[in-house]
Amino acid sequence: MNQSAVTLPDYAVHHPKDGGYGTSVFLLHGAFGAKEYWRTQVQAFTQAGYRVVSWDAPGYGLSALPQALTIDHCARALTLLLEKEGGARNVVMGHSMGGMIAQQAWRYARDRIHGYVLSATSASFGSPDGDWQKEFVRARVAPLDAGKTIPEYAPLMLRAMMAPGASGPAVDLLIGTVSQMREETFRAAVAAIVGFEGRDLLPTLDIPVLCIAGELDTTAPAQVMQKMAGKIANAEFVNLTGLGHFGWAEDPARFNAAVRHFLDLHFPNP
To answer: Which of 38, 73, 191, 229 could form a disulfide with 235 if both were Cys (CB 3.0 to 4.6 A apart)?
Structure first.
């Protein structure tokens, strides 16, 4: 089987208890993750009456790793998912690499995307040959090159991306989920991020967009996300003070409340 062919990834559909949803929210995890770590978001959004679809991106969980894992490949896989599971109103929520995939999917599925929540992400990662980009890759794969396993390395890496002292069930779930990643997926995802370019898309986004950042995030800095929001006509920007790259895990209640406000304002359930 040709693993580079775009196929429907593994996913789960979560239904609201009242069965009266009018909007589906698609959850896209980051480079370090899988669909299982969205537990608090699935609970919060389904309880609010939204239908939720979470996926394992290509290479993650039960989804096969393509021979060439790229943001564009994942965006085309997302297009298949939107075609199969999308409804009358679809909001795509992407965290970090998931936010890049979400933006790239605008090229293929514009008529199926009605809103975005972009969490701790960027519209551009710059040139793969840039010094910062090379260091980004080196710093993340060096421990693996030195013989460390994902379970040994992931907790240290993830905690360094969070606010000091971040803790709680959602943080534990994040660390546990990422610790189960396959090394080949980890390496491929880090390489896929570098070189992403989607700045040309920002002026074309004519739908409601929430850009949500962590004040202490050094991977996707709040000031960068604020500039990004400024290039989108219908964008709102939220800066979660005291949080890092994984705001949805570091303080789920505050993150979920910001997203709920956005959803309830622009996509109220009937």
So the answer is: 229
**How does pLDDT run across 102-132, given as a tens digit for each residue?**
999 999 999 999 999 999 999 998 766 777 7
Instruction: Look over the chain and give the mean of its residue pLDDT values, rounded to a whole number.
Output: 93
Q: How many Å apart are CA 171 and CA 111, to the nearest integer?
A: 35
pTM for the model stands at: 0.95
**154 vs 115, 143, 144, 148, 186, CA distance in Å?**
32, 10, 10, 10, 10
Query: 64 lies in which domain range?
Result: 11-266
> Does residue 6 fall inside a structural domain?
no
Is the pLDDT at 59 greater than 70? The verdict is: yes
Name residues whose C-beta falls within 8 Å of residue 172's C-beta, 6 or more positions apart in sequence: none
Residues 6+ apart with CB under 8 A from 189: 31, 32, 59, 69, 97
Q: How big, in percent rounded to 5, are the helix, strand and coil portions of the chain?
A: 45, 15, 40
**CATH assignment at residue 232:** 3.40.50.1820
Count of structural domains, the chain: 1
Q: How confident is the model at residue 2 (pLDDT cuts 50, 70, 90)?
A: very low
